[in-house]
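Hi there,

I know you've been waiting on this one. I reran it after we fixed the sequence typo, so this is the corrected version. Both the input and the resulting structure follow.
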Amino acid sequence: MATRTVTIASSVGLHARPAALFVEAASASGLDVEIAKPGEDPVDATSILGVMALGARHGEEVVLTAEGDGADETLDSLVALLSRDLDAE
């Protein structure tokens, strides 16, 4: 299982548009991807409700995990996405 830790760059955290873009990218991977705050239970990264329920704010770290062929590449692209201020784009 591949794992990455990333700091949320979007000014509103993982809410509304940033969450939707993240969920869309996670879903497009076709892999089992999960997201969690450190020390908390992970949620399905393809679930908009699950991702928004995390309450991940700007500057907080989240842990991404994925399993399957291409997991490392998928997580690298998701980390790159979350490392940008998606609200400013």
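Quick highlight: The longest strand covers residues 61-67.

Best,
R. S.
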